[in-house]
Amino acid sequence: MEQIRQEAREFMINTYYELGKTEEEALHRIEEVDQEIVDKGFYEQTFEELEYGAKVAWRNSNRCIGRLFWDQLHVIDKRHLKTEEAIFQALVEHIDFATNGGRIRSTISVFPQLKQGEKVRVWNHQLIRYAGYVTEQGVIGDSDSIEFTNKCIELGWEPKYGHFDILPLVIQINDNEPRWFEIPEDVLIEVPIHHPEYDWFSDLNLQWYAVPIISDMSLDVGGITYPAAPFNGWYMGTEIGARNFADEYRYNMLPMIAEYMGLNVKRQSTLWKDRALLELNTAVLHSFKEAGVSIVDHHTAAQQFKKFEEKEATENRDVTGKWTWLIPPVSPATTHIFHKPYSNEIVKPNYFYQGKPFKEG
Amino acid sequence: MEQIRQEAREFMINTYYELGKTEEEALHRIEEVDQEIVDKGFYEQTFEELEYGAKVAWRNSNRCIGRLFWDQLHVIDKRHLKTEEAIFQALVEHIDFATNGGRIRSTISVFPQLKQGEKVRVWNHQLIRYAGYVTEQGVIGDSDSIEFTNKCIELGWEPKYGHFDILPLVIQINDNEPRWFEIPEDVLIEVPIHHPEYDWFSDLNLQWYAVPIISDMSLDVGGITYPAAPFNGWYMGTEIGARNFADEYRYNMLPMIAEYMGLNVKRQSTLWKDRALLELNTAVLHSFKEAGVSIVDHHTAAQQFKKFEEKEATENRDVTGKWTWLIPPVSPATTHIFHKPYSNEIVKPNYFYQGKPFKEG
Ligand code: HEM
Ligand code: HEM
User: Fold this and answer.
1) A234 an active-site residue?
2) Residue ranges of the Nitric oxide synthase (NOS) domain (chains A, B) (predicted)?
3) B179-181/B213-214 β-pairing
């Protein structure tokens, strides 16, 4: 309890200061919150506090290159929801609102805070994600999802054994049996991947969903943990083009693209992997633009991050960052990030990994 | 003195064990060395100790991806040299031996150890390196060399204001005035950079020297510091193609290459930087091969590093490494290195940065 009081106090001081409120207001609020914690063991944040906390948590996300826009996060307050159905509806609304016909809005939906004996979890890693199946012919779909896909099947979801099957939303309240729901198709945008010059690229039948909505991290603000608080921005192209489609343990498309390109894959020094990777990333950026879905290339993202660093400097705030995540996985040395160190100090409010809600096997 | 004794002891135990000698031999040698240190304040290593120490120092070099070949280092013992001329001659011999007509040999030359009042330093960062000049028209040559180039000019070296002027060797013994010497042209190999398909690439008039010979780090073995111990391997292509020629603060060639390629440099999302970078790296690898000069691409280097990790595991030795340096600056996520963590623990023997022998201004 001492820790909640301490973190609440610090959060209120910083937040009220940044919001330009008076010291009196801050002190008054601290007293109020302190009393609430002493009385009940927890406290409730105002919407303003929650909103600012979620934004600052983004600003403090060391692994995120997209932080220039931290102040433009849409915060949707769903802390009052108590049932799986209501939460499911809210998640669908989140998808719809964030997708916005392709003009993606950075958005977070915040569900009830963690309390003694009360816990809401969304089991999905991202709200929209493709299933992965281990079959005798090898993995089908996204191998990153294999374990969760098995869980869904155990819960009664029907596997489809396609490469791009959207997984259901799985919601758990307290220790109840988790419940799963299909996402209605009409809120989903998926982007078929074409290349601006190579027609054959379409034959690869690649597609990816429009909006990455991380749903398994907790939001930690002022001593309060929100274990269900899915948030999204828009994609940086390399996430899809240099990792999801390219990693050997994911869709592993580089060998096939190289083959279509007619590259000599026997000799590494032809740089066939780099060539295939470049065309794949070109195709991803091109396709999202063509489909009218927000996306940012890694050069522009790095420039925006530079602006973020400059803005933070003018506000006299330190920028913390995790270099190994901030550098893009394509041509990293062409960005300024590569050429400077970042301190990976963890500052709160922030988003944190949490234990998986389900166990292996 | 306690520290030298301790480090000597540890080094002897490990080295004699790895060399398959008996415990008796090790203990005998430790006693001998210990006595020498007590008597004189320092000790001399046998050639075998020095050789093994230099090799293990390479094996322990956390930033080096080339460590599979640590056991094949050629160690040249020049600890007896006392004059600048003799050291200069030895450096020229090093260049010649290591270059080997293009079939580069990993080589280190070891000059006198650091003692009270005795210190040999090679001022150059690498034995072969291009000068850099600040002029009214901007920087000419390699901006990485500007400060050292100024020093050379102060010492009487004649600047040539070309893009690829080989700097002189600058050698300092103790507190004497440093002396400079031109490297005879007949020991130098330089590689003109062509592209296998783009003829215009030759019009860029790029070239690079064949052998990177780091000469400003110290070798630290068994409590002894060798402040002059230049070592070389061969290049990994990206060092030249993704850093020396590409970095904005170095030769900054990407905009011009993109222009020759006819790319739209107004929009980052065309990935023009990545395209130019890829062709530049292709050209570097191609040109070195064509010229018969050893070079390794980053994919092959990563595979070799993987083999190194496997070999070390069979020897029950931990591999330490610095991830931020080990990942190549082109398509890093296509190598296994990107996908695992490395411990950056510093183990001795090792190569260390030392303070610059010259001061700014
Ligand atoms: C607006 C567009 C955004 C872009 C382009 C962007 C970009 C990125 C990228 C490229 C990563 C690395 C992902 C990876 O390598 O797996 C990342 C990580 C992250 N971002 Fe952002 N981001 C955006 C919005 C947001 C928002 C709105 C939040 C939270 C409110 C956020 C919080 C985070 C966090 C917590 C991580 C680390 C995720 C993890 O560890 O798996 N980002 N971001
Ligand atoms: C045989 C071929 C070799 C290859 C391909 C190779 C490759 C590399 C590469 C790519 C780097 C990073 C350079 C940079 O980013 O600036 C590096 C760093 C390093 N290598 Fe190797 N290397 C080789 C041989 C050697 C040898 C023979 C030694 C010592 C005996 C050595 C010791 C080091 C050290 C100490 C560093 C760090 C240098 C620094 O911090 O500036 N390497 N190596």
Assistant:
1) yes
2) 63-70
3) unpaired
